[in-house]
Amino acid sequence: ERERERGVPPNLSAMASSSSLLRHRHPKSQPSITAPPETTKANPVDASSPPIEEGRIGWGIAIIALFVARRFSASSNLIHDCDEVFNYWEPLHYLLYKFGFQTWEYSSEFALRSYLYLMIHALIISPFSWWYGSGPGKVHAFYALRLVLGTLSTISESALVVGISLRFGRRLAAYTLMLLCFTSGCFNASTSLLPSTFSMYAITLAAAALLFDRPCFSVAVSAIGVLVGWPFSVLAAIPLVTYALVTGGFIKVFFAGLMTSVCAMILSLLADYFFYGRWTSSVMNLVIYNVVGGGDSALYGVEGPLFYIRNGFNNFNFALLLALLLPAESLIIRRKGFSLLFVIVSPLYLWLGFMSLLPHKEERFLFPVYPLICVAASAVIESYPELVPKAFRKTDSSFFVMVARMLRPLTLAAILVLSYSRTTALLNGYSAPLQVYRQLPTVDGIHLGKGPTLCVGSEWHRFPSSFFLPSQGYQVYWVDDGFRGLLPFSFNKTAGGTAAAPTYFNKWNRASYEQFLSDEETCNFLVELDLKREDTVLRGSNTTAWKVVAEWPFIDNEKSPPLYRAFFIPMVWQKSNAFGRYRLLKRRDLGGAVL
After folding, report:
1. Average predicted confidence (pLDDT) for the chain
2. How far is C-alpha 47 from the geometric centre of its chain's CA atoms?
């Protein structure tokens, strides 16, 4: 298990409040999955159509429940991947405040990252950036954008839940809603600033559009998710687009997808030209680099074929296993309307199978199909009574049918408890970086003759972004702790800013001799993780030169049992795991610079 998460520890009781919204009473004669209504051009199924059954899940309850969950994620979620910081939060910070870190992918020589994606988010966050200013308040702009991302997640997932309720009934929709609200995977992905999260919104909304018999909208949204978000998510969109083309009128649907794609590509080209300073397509560059351009993602780590199963179990526990059983279950149970349901969830199996074959794997790569895991798992749970052999299923009140029905809430309860446990473990075990960086003091540069220098060594990959620097004058530098990969550099405004092609960047992940600070005596503040290793001498151990400003517990992966560090078990978790200290230190001779 690769644990790279971090965040702000919350009051997790807020999540439990939404569970009361999901309790329903069901008639005993309710079928497992209701057959979908017949759809014709003269009588399309939409949000205004009569419900399949009285009391179906409507927009109100779905939006309220999901918004509560996503609001909690926005304020408390971890930053799960350093790529989220250096490839998205940092360039975004540069667009807003004119300083931030640049990775080699943003060099105009390579131009692999889309500025259209960044510009959309820059437009959203700009009012908050203006309101909170460029000082300590800008961290609130960070969380404000996260809240917007959570709202987008709420809208797309609410549409999916309402569409499921319309097509397949209240019970399946309610189960899906519960899993969307509580599973750790959806909690993690919903408010991450990543193209794969953007593609997740698009795939979810495209699936919902098919349930509402809106094939043109489904294809258009899929195209936006691919061309504005993550180009490789096209594979996950293929089943949805194919179904829309076959059932929705080929020419009309094809034209909708084509026009959307052309518009998105034109906007992407214009944004890339403006920022990279030359005509180029980041979408095409990324595809060419990874497919035929000699790109080697294995430079950034290789995992085995079961990585996504192990990681997925951490994030979805038994829900993932149940979701994987749906295709096999369909061979046993013949259900009306299953073909449409399987189309909706089929991107999960196609995407998971393909991504598992690639050597380089990361949790975020699976984000586009996370909500579909919840749908597939809910469908299996909902069909428990149908799995009872006909010989033991003569009446709805037979013993085995009643047992199968009782297993439904028990399964959901187990999934939700384990999800709560997983989220609690992550937020309490890996929250230190965001907590510590928020303790950085506002520093008066006049006392120092320049802006304060913050030095970071081996913990560079947990830097939460320049949004957490409380003053414009802060300068962040990397100090050499033995890392030999290529680190991000600050955008160089004098060399052209976003249009620059610095010579210190390369695509082979080779370290540059310029990436480390040469004179560590200029460091005013220092961030370190002390895991109490006898063979490691930390700079902060020199107490005559440094004093601790703030410190937070951080779980020690190597000395903590995998089960206990992955899931929070009351009265056991704290005792069974080992912890280091995540520290912010200040040089003692900094004097009166701290205001």
Report:
1. 88
2. 29
> In sequence order, what DSSP letters do the residues of 294-357 get, joined into one string?
---GGGG----TTHHHHHHHHHHTHHHHHHHHHHHHHHH---TTHHHHHHHHHHHHHHHHHHHH
Instruction: Tell me what pLDDT residue 395 has.
Output: 78
- Residue 17 is encoded by which pair of tokens? 């409040």
φ and ψ at residue 516, rounded to 5 degrees: -105, 150
E strands, 10-160, are 101-102
- Asked if 366 contacts 355 with a C-beta cutoff of 8 angstroms, the reply is yes
- CA 554 to chain CA centroid, Å, is 22
**CA dihedral (568, 569, 575, 578) positive or negative:** negative
Strands (E) in 449-569, as ranges, are: 453-456, 475-478, 489-490, 525-530, 546-555
Neighbours of 507 (CB within 10 A): 18
**41 has a pLDDT exceeding 60:** no
Q: How many CB atoms lie under 10 A from the CB of residue 357?
A: 8
Query: Which of 319, 501, 329 minimizes the C-alpha distance to 414?
Result: 319
Which contacts qualify for 127-132: CB closer than 8 Å, 24 or more apart? Answer: 129/96, 129/97
Contact between 383 and 33 under an 8 Å Cβ cutoff? The reply is yes
Write b or e for each residue in 158-197: b if 16 or more Cβ atoms lie within 10 A of its Cβ, otherwise e: bbbbbbbbbbbbbbbbbbbbbbbbbbbbbbbbbbbbbbbb
What is the 3-state secondary structure of 552-563?
Answer: EEEECCCCCCHH
Give the other-Cβ count within 10 Å of 146's Cβ.
22
Least confident interval from 172-186, 297-311, 501-515: 297-311
Span of 50-64, 162-176, 295-309 with lowest mean pLDDT: 50-64
How are beta strands 525-530 and 489-490 bridged, if at all? Answer: unpaired
pTM of the model: 0.88
Distances (CA, A) of 390 to 94, 326, 401: 64, 20, 10
Could you tell me what percent of the chain has a pLDDT over 70?
87
Round to whole Å and give the CA distance between 30 and 24: 13
Q: Are 464 and 88 in contact (CB under 8 A)?
A: no
Q: How far apart are CA 273 and CA 95, in angstroms?
A: 15
Question: Which position has the token pair 């949204």?
Answer: 221
Give me the mean pLDDT over the 283-298 stretch. Answer: 80
